[in-house]
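Extended Data, record GNAT family N-acetyltransferase
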Amino acid sequence: MYQFDHTFTAYIHDSVHDFVSRADREKEHIWIAEVDGKPKGMIGIARVDHDTARLRWFLVEPDARGQGLGKQLMEQAITFSEQRQYKRIILWTHSDLIQARKLYTHYGFRLVETTSKQLSGQELVEEKWELDLVD
């Protein structure tokens, strides 16, 4: 669908494996959404520093979209971050992930930075989004 190759799959696999092996269970977490006992989505919160969490690995399988899983995962991640007293959440995404960008906007994230990057043999526009959790 997005024309990512095996290097993207390896990148995700390696980053999740690294996270699981070193995560601070009090400040970081991964959630997996299941439908009929099968994993259909995931999201993670990783610690950047004392004040900042990073939303990572946000995915809902195409056949499970439109059922509210993305919203449930996003709300879980934001609530977790608030409870851990993070002051902000950042995330990196690609400009062509239109539905995800709509969800980020819905939850109050704002676009703060863009950059071009070569990934999976294609030039992509990466975007950094940020959500302030305190006034």
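Summary. DSSP finds three helices and six strands in the chain.
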